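Researcher: Final request for today, and then I'll write up notes for the group meeting. The sequence and the SMILES for NAP follow.
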Amino acid sequence: MKHILLAGVSGAIGGALAQALLARDEESIVVGLCRDAAKVPEPLRSHSRLTLLAWDAEDDQSPKTVARALEKTIPASKGIDTFIYAAGLLHDGPMFPEKRLEELEAKNMARAFAVNATGFPLLVQALLPWFRHRDLKRVVAISAKVGSIEDNRLGGWYAYRSSKAALNMLIRTLSVELPRRCKPIACVSLHPGTTDSALSDPFSQSLAQLQVHSPAETAENLMSVIEGLSAEDNGRFLSWDGSALPW
Ligand SMILES: NC(=O)c1ccc[n+]([C@@H]2O[C@H](COP(=O)([O-])OP(=O)(O)OC[C@H]3O[C@@H](n4cnc5c(N)ncnc54)[C@H](OP(=O)(O)O)[C@@H]3O)[C@@H](O)[C@H]2O)c1
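Model: Predicted protein-NAP complex:
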């Protein structure tokens, strides 16, 4: 993995993945997308092989701006071999996972879908010119097990669950079209495992019984899965330990 685009580099998992990718290969170049570069911690922010570009998943024009700026760092003719989407939204101020139907709000549903689902294929669309090379392309979205329809026994979390289920469907749909247009490719959905981050922080008490990984541990787990991907894995929903999850 030499030319990598990572959306959500200011997040706990995205930042740890960027660090792991840069440490893995001295020739790797990482372009990180985020709303606010100041949120990317040092020394990652000033790493010589990391370029930060502005991107907001809630602005549908943002991918076009990203593509124009990306051309200056990694021209489309050089290609991208790995695209990781690590942005996600579970809570933000008054927006909080719904416990009951009365808490469901259209505005929160729309925001969750923009960040957790729509942002991913809009970036893939803008990146198509970077995927027209002959090497394996890894197109990875960090999803969540709670987005599994089959696994949903607890209910609640309407906006987050349904937007992650939509993300999973988008991955399956892309996994049908992309091999026809940019073979070989592995387009997959990955559950990172419960990870200590701003996103999981309000639930730390209820997570106490679960295995909670540090962002660095999660990045190592995900890197093992991502490095092991082949075109045979295209269209799969995988957990952090490489096991298959039900859609
Ligand atoms: N942590 C867990 O236990 C867990 C479990 C299952 C799945 N996941 C998934 O793993 C991924 C990473 O989560 P995390 O734990 O690392 O959470 P995090 O630290 O809160 O990171 C979330 C990232 O999403 C970005 N983001 C939010 N809204 C955005 C927007 N409108 N435009 C662009 N970027 C936006 C954030 O950017 P800002 O810095 O600008 O806010 C941040 O970079 C998410 O998809 C999450 O659903 C996490």
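Model: Strands lie at 3-7, 29-34, 50-54, 82-85, 137-142, 185-191, 237-239. The CA atoms of residues 68 and 217 lie 34 Å apart.
Researcher: Thanks, that's everything.
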